[in-house]
# Entry
Amino acid sequence: MVIVAEKSGLIFPMSDKYEEYLIDESKFTGNAESISFPKNEEEIIEILKEMKEKGTPVTIQGGKTGIVGSAVPLGGHIMNLSYMNSVKGYEILDDETGLITVEPGINLIDLKKEILRIFKEKALFWPPEPTETSATVGGICATNAQGISGFVYGNVQKYIKSLRLVSSNGIINIISDNDNPEFFDKVMGKEGITGIISEVTLKLIKKPQEVWGISFFFETEEDAGNFTDAIKNNIPKSDTAFIGAFEYIDRNSINLIEKRKADMAKIKELPDIDSNFAGMCYIEIHGDDEGIEEIAGELMETAVMYNSDPDIAWAVSGETEVEKTRAFRHAAPETANLFIEEKRRDDKRITKLGTDMSIDDESFSQILKEYRSSLESSGLKGCVFGHGLENHLHVNILPENYDEYVKGVELIRKWASDYKSKKGKIICEHGIGKLKKQILSDLLPKDYIDECKALKDEFDKDMILNRGNIL
Ligand SMILES: Cc1cc2nc3c(=O)[nH]c(=O)nc-3n(C[C@H](O)[C@H](O)[C@H](O)COP(=O)(O)OP(=O)(O)OC[C@H]3O[C@@H](n4cnc5c(N)ncnc54)[C@H](O)[C@@H]3O)c2cc1C
# Structure
């Protein structure tokens, strides 16, 4: 182990007590020689200076909920920002929306609490939400995370007023939507390769007046797929409401969730789903009651056409109840990740193996059918869930052992290659990190890799920050 000179007193040598910082939710695992937990921007700069002098690479960490290993160190130093989690200021604007300035390590749970405490009856919210509420604002910006409502509310950048970025040479860049908006592209979604986000001012908007969540159940995947296509091709609209999420969840995901449901506080009281059902579509409607009812009516009529009985659908309203059905959807990736964690106890080479691909102008039903048939012909088990209206499914391979893991890697590469030839996207919201770089390597889009190389030259020639991510 390298002996770390603790010049600043902010840097700690690695020991067993920091083991949890060597892994993220992808279960990809790394190693490091030292770790720090800066409490403000000055400390970030001081630590960076010390690391740069020694030529030690630095891996930046937020909530470590990433699923491509981008916060996992490959040697060097870990800079964990979880202690930088306070609110620095706020403002209520003339149009009754708001701004809140936060440190990067604040997570979504605390951010929501702070927004409620500060803005009270103004009923404001920050729309970006990758469903995983322990994700931090810094991590969300660095990954350009989307989540289930990204397709209606838009990307993260739309909700950023300004941010501060510390470059590897200690220079602070102030990026704002007034002065230099083109700069955002060099930070958002770039997985920390251009700098450390040290402060962000978020734009808050009015919450929808009401939210409903409706879950429709289908006896065949074909029916679920055709229902999704029917809605996609003719999205129900009203003047005062809109579809805020449309998620597909397959039977294997439901089985994984039900196995662990009793231990999951938010969903343990939801009823079990009849074993006849092959899949479900979870749909949120945001707006006022009248508009929501109009859209819900249309959804129910269409569901009947695809053999889903509206009488057994779960229909809930109000934030608290909708939180529960949203948590059910979130439990799909959560339990898939827990499955991998369990398998890793037998073989540490096993990591998460999930897709993050989308393709326009294809039938959702066909995409689902193709994923299912190639899983079956490979003899692999997988669970399938994701964003229906965007043809953006996350297929998670569930390997029983390392041989199946290797087969799973091959299958994901085959899918990526097919998507690439059909001009689909092989990376959407999870990023590339270290895991997808390893798995997809030569298949990754060359123009994006070239763009990231140029950014490295511009911001971090010595490759100090987040070495191993993307490049
Ligand atoms: C169950 C589950 C469900 C998920 N669902 C979704 C989903 O629906 N949509 C989605 O997009 N993602 C999803 N994710 C992935 C994850 O939550 C997001 O990628 C999230 O944005 C990561 O935030 P984090 O704070 O945990 O970042 P980390 O995992 O700690 O880091 C992610 C990347 O951001 C960088 N980073 C972190 N903080 C900073 C900073 N201050 N400055 C510069 N770089 C920084 C890291 O170096 C790393 O490259 C899910 C994860 C889980 C576990």
User: Anything to note?
Assistant: The longest helix spans residues 319-344.
